[in-house]
Amino acid sequence: MLVVDFLDRNPNLQITAQDIDRFRKLAHDLRHQEQWWWPVMSAWSDLALQTNSPEAALHVMEALRRAILGLNRELAVRKGVSVTSESDAPSR
User: Fold this and answer.
1) DSSP 86
2) Angle 17-32/34-50 helices, nearest 10 degrees?
3) Average pLDDT, the chain
4) Integer Cα distance of 22 and 42 in angstroms
5) Less packed terminus of the chain by CB within 10 Å, N or C?
6) What residues contact 62, with CB distance under 8 A and at least 6 apart?
7) Angstrom distances, CA of residue 42 to CA of 17, 22, 45, 83
């Protein structure tokens, strides 16, 4: 579904064999990690429904980002999870 949505949003995009391999790997990872992934995403979805403000949503995202970094910083960096957040940045 993610690939279909992505292609729907980018109809003029030229898809390469490398792109297809990345989508295939993503689908494989999601399918094989469903035992832990689904409960987390289900809880995340329920929490999002209870969140009534952009500030609260950012707080939830920040908590998830920090949890990922705390558990495996190297993996987080490799996957593109930001090492710093807006709250880490100096105030102007």
Assistant:
1) G
2) 90
3) 77
4) 24
5) C
6) 85, 87
7) 32, 24, 5, 25
- 């880490």: which residue's tokens? 88
Is-contact 55 63, C-beta < 8 A?
A: no
User: In this predicted structure, what is the pLDDT of residue 20?
Assistant: 79
Q: What percent of the chain has pLDDT over 90?
A: 0
Q: What is the pLDDT of residue 86?
A: 57
Considering only residues 37 and 25, tell me which one the structure prediction assigns the higher pLDDT: 25
Q: How many residues does the chain have?
A: 92
CB 59 within 8 A of CB 85: no
- Average pLDDT of the segment spanning 17-46: 78
Which residues are CB-contacts of 60 (< 8 A; sequence separation ≥ 6)?
Answer: 44, 47, 48, 51
